[in-house]
Each structure stands twice: as structure tokens, then as C-alpha cells.
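ingest -> validate -> predict -> emit
validate: passed (alphabet ok, no gaps, 334 aa)
predict: started
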Amino acid sequence: MTIREKTEEQEFRIFSSRASFSRNTKGRDREEEPCDIRTAYQRDRDRILHSKSFRRLKQKTQVFLIPEGDHYRTRLTHTLEVSQLARTIAKALRLNEDLADAIALGHDLGHTPFGHAGEYALDQVCPSGFKHHEQSVRIVELLENDGRGMNLTWEVRDGIRNHRTSGSPGTLEGQIVRCCDKIAYINHDIDDAERAGILREDDIPKECRSMIGDTTRMRLNTLIHDVVVNSEDKPEISMSADMEQMMRRLRKFMFERVYHNSAAKREEAKAIRMIQDLYYFYNEHPELLPEGCQRMMSECGEPRERVVCDYIAGMTDSFSIRTYTELFIPGSWH
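emit:
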């Protein structure tokens, strides 16, 4: 018996009957020889972790565009925080921690430079629209590894596709990530907004502070405990009704004071214009796209507009600015 097989047997002894067992995965689009050490979901997690798309998240905006400070979140640190919360809940509920981790690590791979501003920019100009959760799936199914994708299991791809609030994950582990994504971004965005001087702790609605806590640590502790207690031995992952109401109140507050705040978002119009200018330029000059993009159009028959979106969405904040500067800003003659 291999180490993987022993691990799979151990899952049946330890996990809840509602867990997604590695041995029972619906599988991959392309059949592969199983690893003798890692389960299917461990293998998926490793593939995501070692991908170029994952590494690029370190230079992609979470909320504050190109902040001057070392402690503001990026899309990568957000992803790691979601992963940590998801693993904690999955372990407490005796669900598949490796599956939850893989989904969490891959859920935002498709995000554009400049966060939701970049997503909005591409969604406005691309004929087929642009949604980051769909792009994340496109990356793992097609774009990574020179058009071969990562060949992940169905459960991981389903969790990535359905991590948005309106999604409907097919596994409890996917539901955990969907829940943890909101918990993570609301709380770490409060922390970043306080660091930026946009918020003070006293600005947060009193009823939210009274029920959830008045520090990031307390709020996370309260919310995670509520999810675990309310979901134990149940067929879905959820918060208690009162806590869900407070989370909605807190999210509404953040949209009013931070996400739509002119001080926090004053550079977004420039970012949107820049992303759209890049889109129009590469549609007019597809011959200037990298070789991999050329192959996607010529060999795979992918529409030019979609490939242009792929290329721009894959850019980091700094690379998109550098590319825009090279294309549109005159340089000195020397």
C-alpha cells in the first residue's frame, strides 16, 4: 500500500461522512497516474502553489492601489489569509482540509491588475465580458503551462468557480472558502483602512463592534467560531442568522466608507483608463502579443479579444504600468 493510499484510508477513519474524500474525487479532465505520496487534492494544491499565476498575485492590488507601505494587503496575502481561515474551519468540522486549501489558493488567480477596478475595466470592453472567478477557472483549465492548464480535479475547479457570494459550490469545502473569502477581505480591509487613516475603530458601527469585536483578532475569532458551531454536523456551511446580519451590516459600511471612498479610490479612474487603453492597443496590434498568446489564437482558435483579456488580466500592477509607459509615454532621445 502506498503512502497516498494510507492517507486515503485515514480520511475514512477521521473525516466526517459529509467530507469530500480524496479517493472519491470526480477526477480530472485528462486521466493521470496517481501520485504514490500525495492525494489528488494535495497534488492540486501544489500545482497551484507552484504556478506563475499564483506568484504574480504578490504584485496585484487588493484594495489600495500601489500603496506606499509594506504592510498593506496584496491579492497574494489575501489569498493566504483565506487559506488559513478555510483550513481552520475544515479541520474543526472534520472536512477535507487539503481540498479547502487548494480551492482557497486558487480562488483569485484570475484577478486583474488593480483589483476590481481592472476587472470592471475589462468587463466593460470585452465583448464576452470579464469576471475574475471565470478567469481563475480559465487559468487552471487552459492558460497555465503553455495552454495545457493544470488539469485539476473537478472539486477544486468547482470551488474556484463558485467562490463568489452568489455561487453554489458542490462541496462543503467549497462552501467554506466562499464564506472565508468574505470574512477575510472585510476584516483585513478594515485593518488596512485604519492603517491608511481612512477609518478609526470607533467609526465601525457600534452594534457590529459589540457583537463581533473591536479588533481584527477578536472579529476573526468570533466569526470563525460562529461558522464552526453553526455548521457542525449540518449539510451546509453557514453563520448564525444574527451573525450573518452583522456581517452584511459591516460589509455595507465598508462599501460606504472604504470601497467607494474618494480618498481610497482616487487613482482608480486612471487605472481603468490605462487597462482599457491597453486592451484597445493590443486588439489593434495583436502581432505585438507574446508568442504564447499568438499560439492561443493560431493553434487553439481562441478569439483575439479573449486572448488580449488573458494577457492584460495576467499582468501585475507594476508590469501594466511599465507596459503602458513604453507604449504611450514618449521617452527621452539618447
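The chain has a mean pLDDT of 95.
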